[in-house]
Structures are given as C-alpha cells and as structure tokens.
Design brief:
There is one protein chain. The chain is an alpha+beta fold and 449 residues long. The chain has 22 helices and 10 strands. A hairpin with a 5-residue loop joins strand 4 and strand 5. It is elongated. Bound molecules: adenosine-5'-triphosphate and magnesium ion. The site of adenosine-5'-triphosphate (ATP) has 12 residues, from helix 9.
C-alpha cells in the first residue's frame, strides 16, 4: 500500500518558512485513501460545505492515519467557511472555543470538528487579513486560506488535505514524502514553533511513538534545550496531554521516547525521578501499567486516568512512606501522608480532577488493606467500589516482579468461589502461619493457638 507513496517523485526544495509553500496534488490513483474508509458523517459535512459553495478538506490525523492504513480515531474538517457560516449549514452544530472558534457538528455519538482555515497571526501582515474579513472576526480568530492553514499546523504529516473534488490530496509541506520516509518533521523553524507552543515537543514524541516514526534531526535538536518551556503550560492542558500520551493505546511506545528526550520530568516529575533513581520495581511496574493499558484499549475495555496516575506515582508513594516511617511516623498515617505529598507535588505540574485523585488514594490505600482479609474484612473489601481496580493493581505489581505472598491468586480464587467457599478461604487464613502476625490478640478466635 505504501508503495504508491514511495513511487512519488521526490519533493525537492521544500519552501520552509515561506508563505509560498510548494503545492503538490496527489491524484486519486496515486494514493490509497478510499471514501469508504471515511466516516459517513465526515463525508456529509464535506459534501454539504461543498454544495454551499465552500472549500472543505479532511485534514490532520484522519488523512495521516488512513495513508498509513490505520483507523483514525476522529475526522477533522478544514474549510474556508467561517464558524458562523458553518453553523448556519448544520442544525446539529455548535460553536465552541474562545481563543479559536471551532464548530462541532454532531451525528449521534460522533462529533465532526470543523475549523476555519487559519492564519498564523504572529506573522506580519496578518492584521490585514483580519481586517479584510469584514470585521466579522474576533481578534484571536484570524482566518486565512489553505496555504496559511497548512503553514500553521505542527508537523508535515499532519498537514495533508483530502478533498472530495476528484478525491485528491493536497500537500504543501512535503508531508506525503515524510509519511513514506516515516519522519516527524516540524513545519517551519522548529525552535520558533516550539517557542510558540511548547506542547509541540510532547506532540512530536507522541506521534513518533504512536506511528513508530523517527523525529527528523532538525525537529529533534532543540527539544533538550527547550523542554523546560513546558513549565509555562497551564496544568489543565498538560493533564489533557498526559491522557493523550498514555491513554491513546500506544503508551508503551511513547514512554521510551519521552525518556529519550528527557521530557518526562515536565509532566510526571516524581515518575521521572523514580525511574532515574531506579526505585524498587519502578521500571517494571510502569512498563507493565502501560502494556496493560494499551491492551485494554485494544480490547475496547475501559481505562481511567486514575489507574494510570496511580501506577505512575506508586513507587514514589512507597518511597515517601518509607521515608516518613523512618522519621518515626506510624505506617497507616505515613501512607496517607505520603499519598497526599505525592499528589500535591504532581498537581503542581498537571491538574488531576478530584474524582481521579480520590480514586488514586483509594487504589493505594487498598493495596495495604487487601492483605488484611480476616473475619468480615474480605467480604467488605470485595464490595468496595474500587475493589476491581485495586485487585488489578495487585496483579500488576506481581507481574512486575513483586512478591506479595500469593495475594493476587488468593483474590482471584475468592472471586470464583461460592459464599461457603469464600468463608472457608477466610477461615483457612486464620489458621495460616504468617498471615495473622499483624492481628491484634483481641481479634483472635478463642479456639485458636
Ligand atoms: P490524533 O487525533 O490521532 O491524536 P491529530 O493529528 O488528529 O492526532 P489533534 O490533536 O487531533 O491531532 O489535532 C488535529 C490537527 O490540528 C493536527 O493534525 C495538526 O494539524 C493540528 N494541530 C493540533 N495541535 C496543534 C499544535 N499545537 N500546533 C499546531 N498544529 C496543531
Ligand atoms: Mg485528531
């Protein structure tokens, strides 16, 4: 399939940074994208925009992933219609966003995002284009044409435009060639583009991991130096990026790239130092968490940010708890304090909605409580709303090499047993040697010992 791409003539002299980018049209018979692979809703939006006399293109991840033979997770449309004009065409649409207005057109559960061609308003001359739009535009919404829109996108592979007009692809930045060569290449001068938006550094490593592409040398070069600019990004936006990095189904491939470019410290500082200081089980546990998450996503199973964060931060919580105990704090209190400290530290970098930090604390707390199963405890633990996640977490710790004295297996069996079987299991625990060591004498059954 990619053969077609490789057969393309070499695109020479890419006009980087230049407003007059070189325009290549890839005709239908020279590419592998068929209309049948595009969501009907996206096709409808393109069709209606076209019928309304506007230009409409499929752009971004949709085109890129289809060229690579993957299933895009969503379809974005770019058009020369203003958001208001788009809204006028679709009853099922609404304008969202303050800084940049975009239109969401809804078809059942699917949302098609429609953006108006933008201009890079830091360019000189952009004021003109703002004025020429009949004063309809907000100051931050500076509209342009397909060329300016291509130039302000991040990577060449994300700036390909597919049109229903003869089903061709328009390429202004050499993206087709970069897809064939499997390269992530920044449009324009990388250093400037990272300064404009430091999140592009995370995006570069994310796409490299997701697509198994290399980052072009010039695109990679400034990352080490400029990584610290990520400290200026609002914590809410970084939280969104963390989700994209680790909950896209390819987290295992992304983590090594984040470490290679030393960017992990700017999104998960405690995880970064846990890995750098080789804390016990950190490497294996975090790798396992990502493998499991990727697998769940592939199987359409639910994943939650709470679980990922819980795994990423667990080795640091354990180390912090140990430190506090060494300073004389009681284990239970030390655990709670450690959890709180590590979460507070993480919240300075990425926000985490409260419902997730709450679940993280519960998953961590249950790690200690799941081994205390005597009496009615097992039954109660089993009914805990976070039991399933905490049990998965125990299994994961064991998979990562920790010896929890068969705890995971015990709980697996417990779930398979009848009520009587469960009672017998708990009963048997009471007779076990080491299991009761921590129990206070008053809780012991009188007929034991
Ligand atoms: P995926 O959705 O698979 O993660 P995508 O390429 O569709 O990948 P989105 O974040 O959905 O990525 O963005 C859609 C498109 O918008 C991108 O392909 C890119 O062209 C453009 N874009 C997004 N974020 C930026 C950015 N920070 N700077 C420049 N262009 C961007
Ligand atoms: Mg997308």
């Amino acid at each position: 399939m990619l053969k077609r791409l490789f057969n393309l003539p070499i695109i020479s002299s890419l006009a980087k940074n230049s407003p007059s980018l070189k325009h290549h049209i890839i005709a239908r018979e020279k590419h592998n994208i068929s209309r049948r692979q595009i969501s009907r809703s996206a096709l409808k939006v393109m069709q209606r925009l076209g019928d309304g006399g506007y230009e409409a293109y499929l752009v971004g991840g949709g085109v890129r992933d289809l060229l690579l033979g993957d299933h895009p997770k969503d379809f974005d449309i770019a058009t020369n219609a203003t958001p208001e004009q788009v809204k006028h065409l679709f009853r099922n649409s609404r304008i969202i966003g303050r800084r940049f207005k975009i239109v969401h057109v809804r078809f059942g559960r699917e949302i098609i995002e429609v953006t108006t061609f933008r201009d890079n308003h830091t360019d000189s001359g952009s004021n003109n284009s703002a004025k020429s739009d009949e004063g309809m535009l907000l100051r931050d919404n500076v509209y342009g044409d397909i060329r300016t829109d291509a130039a302000r996108r991040d990577f060449t592979v994300n700036a390909l435009y597919y049109t229903l007009d003869r089903f061709s692809i328009h390429d202004f930045t050499g993206g087709i060639q970069d897809i064939a060569r499997r390269k992530i290449r920044m449009i324009g001068k990388p250093e400037t583009r990272y300064q404009e938006d430091p999140v592009r550094m995370l995006r570069a490593v994310r796409f490299a991991g997701k697509l198994d592409f290399d980052i072009d040398k010039a695109t990679a070069a400034p990352i080490h130096k400029l990584g610290s600019l990520l400290a200026n990004i609002p914590s809410a936006r970084l939280f969104e990026e963390v989700l994209k990095l680790f909950m896209g189904g390819y987290g295992s491939a992304v983590l090594p790239k984040l470490r290679e470019y030393d960017l992990l410290q700017y999104i998960l500082p405690a995880t970064d130092s846990a890995l750098k200081n080789d804390l016990p089980y950190a490497e294996a546990l975090i790798a396992q968490a990502l493998v499991n998450t990727d697998k769940r996503i592939k199987n359409n199973q639910r994943v939650t940010p709470a679980y990922i964060y819980a795994a990423m931060l667990w080795p640091s919580v354990v180390a912090e708890q140990k430190k506090l105990q060494d300073e004389g704090m009681q284990p239970v209190q030390a655990h709670q304090q450690a959890a709180q400290n590590i979460i507070s530290q993480q919240l300075q970098t990425t926000s985490i909605p409260k419902r997730f930090t709450q679940s993280m604390k519960e998953i961590w707390d249950l790690q200690h409580r799941l081994s205390r199963r005597q009496g009615k405890r097992a039954e109660r633990l089993f009914e805990h709303p976070r039991f399933r996640a905490a049990y998965d977490f125990v299994l994961m710790r064991e998979e990562a090499g920790e010896d929890l004295h068969g705890l995971g297996k015990w709980w697996t069996r417990y779930q398979e047993e009848s009520v009587e079987g469960r009672e017998a299991m708990v009963e048997k625990l009471g007779q076990g040697r080491g299991q009761n060591r921590r129990r206070r004498p008053r809780r012991r059954k009188p007929n034991q010992d």
